[in-house]
Fold this sequence. Notes:
This protein is of the alpha+beta class and about 350 residues long. The chain folds into three domains: about 80 residues, Arc Repressor Mutant, subunit A, CATH 1.10.10.10; about 150 residues, Beta-Lactamase (2-Layer Sandwich), CATH 3.30.450; about 90 residues, Enolase-like, domain 1, CATH 3.30.390.60. It is about 45% helix and about 20% strand. It contains twelve helices and ten strands. The strands form three sheets. The protein has a five-stranded antiparallel beta sheet, sandwiched between helices. It has a three-stranded antiparallel beta sheet with strand order 4-5-6, covered by helices on one side. Strands 1-2 form a two-stranded antiparallel sheet. The protein is elongated and about 90 Å long. The N and C termini lie far apart (about 55 Å).
Amino acid sequence: MNSLLTERQLKIFQLIIDEFVKSARPIGSRIISENESISVSPATIRNVMADLEEMGFLKKTHSSSGRIPSQKGYRFYVDHLVTPVTKNISNVNVIRHILEDGFYEFEKVVQMSAEVLSDLTNYTTIILGPEVYETRLKQIQIVKLTAHTAIAILVTNTGLVEHRTFVIPAEINSSDIEKLVNILNERLAGIPMIQLSEKLDEELRLLIKHNINIVDTVLDHLKEVLKMEDELTAKLYFGGKANLLKQPEFKDIEKVHSFYSMMEEQDKIADILKRAEDTLQVTIGRENEYELIQDFTLVTAPYRLGNDYMGTIALIGPTRMQYRRTITLLKALSYEMTEAFYHWYKDSHLN
């Protein structure tokens, strides 16, 4: 498809993209002619820009302005001119640096990865965590906080950690809690999170009451603690929600409203991100089926456990995006999360 454009057209088109990404202002022939890598006259540049506009790669914002890339232009640029950087990228070892700082829970690593990636790009990061149906209980701990309250700490095989407070009678002592935890860990370890509440109610209630003097109300509260909502099939982690407000395109209050409205529709976001389970994808502007993100570019990449899809990393930014850097960072983080996920999974089955 590169044969659609001559070498000169490709060069000028590349420069227009680069300049527009930096300035967010329409690009005229004078700006291009001042570039040291170009040795043709402004008149020639104007002719080339007119040709690129006629072909649909550029457009004018109004009659007297310079040109900006069109959606078709961005698509061509991403598909044929963007080559991800593979060397001398010092910031891509996101997870390794986080681990070196002592964060070992998978959930913390995912959240911090989202924040670091948003800091590196100045865009908004969304990471779709593994589905609850795919996660299993690794360990449960119960800690008595006061005479009437305790906290249950649920750790999954993926490193997800849930903290849930519940009510207990004052007469429940530490010895009873220790026995309860031992029974739960013996009988529930390895059980899918979505089945925990059902298992407690159907299989463990009589066993627990036979071994420990615990009243039904404690087990009822614990059943609620172990319940995973049916609609909560996956968790989203956000980084840099306010970053897009820094972009000149989004001074428009309507675009800002669309963005924050989209952020509230987490089920919709999760559905969109699940579609990216095969490979890295770049959807630009109106290519996005979801109307609220048709002013944006969405770049997504999956992370895996072996060959199995586990979740998606996504960056949302303006169509005037630093595509090469964004794609490079997303590919790197996808690889790192796949590696980290493998190690967490292996450790959870060995320990």
